[in-house]
Amino acid sequence: MTTYDSDLLQVLNARGYVHQTTDAERLDALAARQTVPGYIGFDATAPSLHVGSLVQIMMLRRLQQTGHKPIVVMGGGTTKIGDPSGKDESRKMLTSADIDDNIAGIRKVFERLLTFGDGETDAVMVNNDEWLSELGYIELLRDVGPHFTVNRMLTFDSVKLRLDREQPLTFLEFNYMILQAYDFLELARRYDCRLQMGGSDQWGNIVNGMELGRRMEQRELFGLTTPLLTTADGSKMGKTASGAVWLNEEQLPSYDFWQYWRNVDDRDVGRFLRLFTDLPLDEVAKLESPEGNEINAAKSVLADEVTALVRGREAAQLARESAHATFAGGGMGEDLPTLMIPEEGMRIGAALTQLGFTASNGEAKRKLAEGAVKLHGDIITDPGFVIVLRDDKETRLSLGKKKHAIIRAG
Question: Where does ATP bind (predicted)?
Fold first, then answer.
């Protein structure tokens, strides 16, 4: 196992964040002797990030925990273009007002996980629209353009995959990698930023930025990427049959967020405890080697710790208590997702779909036919069944053993 002198690389390596580094030895030496400002960029395409972004946010947290300065770069400028990495088609164009609203929503989770301020290791959040929108087109072409060749840009996975699938790649999107590289240079100028981190799909973009800094201003910059994050069964992190696992409460109730972590594959528990919690590694080692039913206790610890970090300790406690009331006591926890239905009632399939338990009314019908749907503990198979609340002000709707909601009269 590689040994490092700096707390930064020791922690990142021991907890499983490191996939590639551009010059680990020199970065380690730099981090051992001085504060290193480092950044990760996040595009503002929605009012919340989802679980797939959490490993990047946690890397910024580790950066701060080990005595360095996190820079959160919100892509107010690059979101206007859209990152083609991993995309089969162009993103919907957002207005400046949409982007600003999304940034305001995204900031909430960073304020829980990072300490912002004016100190040497305090985090800062910046919007790359500040400098990208000020660039003149001719200026960019003249000063930055000569450092990029189309030959090399065509070899990037984000471009090759789109072209191989014969999906259109607009000239607008083709410029994304140039602007991301320019971000690194501008952050180096403004904050003496020395390090860019990101997922493994960003390796080429990160190297571009390093080389641009070296060619234009002889700056020594570094890059570090995390492994591609998938679950043990090979599926993409943060995606479920019901949709994305959002980090913000407004997009996903804390109960559902807690349940996502409680229901992870047994094989992922140790890895996720290292990546997504602050638990000491010796404690993680004990939790990831359980016997018998103890694995469920380890999953509950994972759910508690991640939910407490992202949503707050009170939200984690409420979610846990709701889960206990639902599964152990057969009751209805306060933190379950809630659906208000009209006085005349609602078809049960429509209720399942509105809650996100099923993706369509067709899927709801299949689940009903399979006997997977219960209303207040009774199996319902009739797709024409209408939920009507008269004497009872609320009831519980369940799909399988893991999805539960409270139905209330509107």
Answer: 239
